[in-house]
Amino acid sequence: MWENELQEAIKAGLKAKAKIMEFYEKGFDVEIKSDNSPVTDADKAADKIIREHLHKAFPTHAFLTEESTDNLDRLNNDFVWIVDPVDGTKDFVAKDGQFTTNIALSYKHRLVVGVVIAPALNEIYFASENNGAFFQKGDEKPVRIHVNDKTEDLTMLTSVFHFTQDEQDFINRHSDKIKHLMKRGSSLKPCAIAHGLAEITFRSSPNTKEWDTAACQLIVMEAGGIFVEPNGDEITYNRKDVYNRNGYIVCNRKENFMK
Fold it and tell me: Nearest Cα to 120, choosing from 141, 89, 99?
């Protein structure tokens, strides 16, 4: 189940990737939005490409995307595509390669499809409900991925641009287990945990939104990991308030769920 929706999401993401890389290589304009975050020509063009492709494939589905006006009619639709065309715009502007395109499908507030594409790295992570998580590099065959089993000597992933004192305090509280730090951009942090390359990442701030977490959350869950609010509550989707007000914690095993 959900194979058609997954494949169409991947197709939409790859179309957007081609346009994003055009801007990445040739140049782009940067604007500052009302929330003081940057947006580029690539964000807007990729958003249009993804919405048009998915609307053609699924004309009755609703959308929640970072770069489009939120139509709250989506709350009455069982199917909602949740999209961030360029997650990690600061990484995109810095040209560090650590940005992604995130596409997820929510059905009755639960995640059923998740696609994370890293255009500059030529990598794709994807998952659908009850079908596992996969990684593909370039034109290579996709491989199934799974979180690792480590419970000691852990690697925590932190943001390139958004490291906070709360995160440092979290590391200090758990210094007996967290021994290594590694920086990753945007949704690549949870995806690295799904891939077994690290064990934990933590976000306490209320600044992320549904489109920042939806796609990578399903990938982590289908890889056997944990992606919840810091108090352990489930994160649901297609909410009226799109902010992840309480932050989140991602880890490979329940033994590593720490507060």
Answer: 99
List residues bridging with 38 in a β-sheet: 32
Give every CB contact of residue 175 below 8 A, 6+ residues apart in sequence. none
Question: Structure tokens of 113?
Answer: 């499809």
Q: Please give the helix or strand (H or E) that residue 156 lies within, else none.
A: strand 154-158
Instruction: For residues 50 and 84, give the distance between their C-alpha atoms in angstroms, rounded to a whole number.
Output: 10
pLDDT tens readout for residues 146-157: 999 999 999 999
Domains of the chain: 3-145 (3.30.540.10), 154-256 (3.40.190.80)
pTM value surpassing 0.85: yes
8-state DSSP, 250:
E
Q: Which H/E stretch holds residue 227?
A: strand 226-228
Amino acid at 33: K
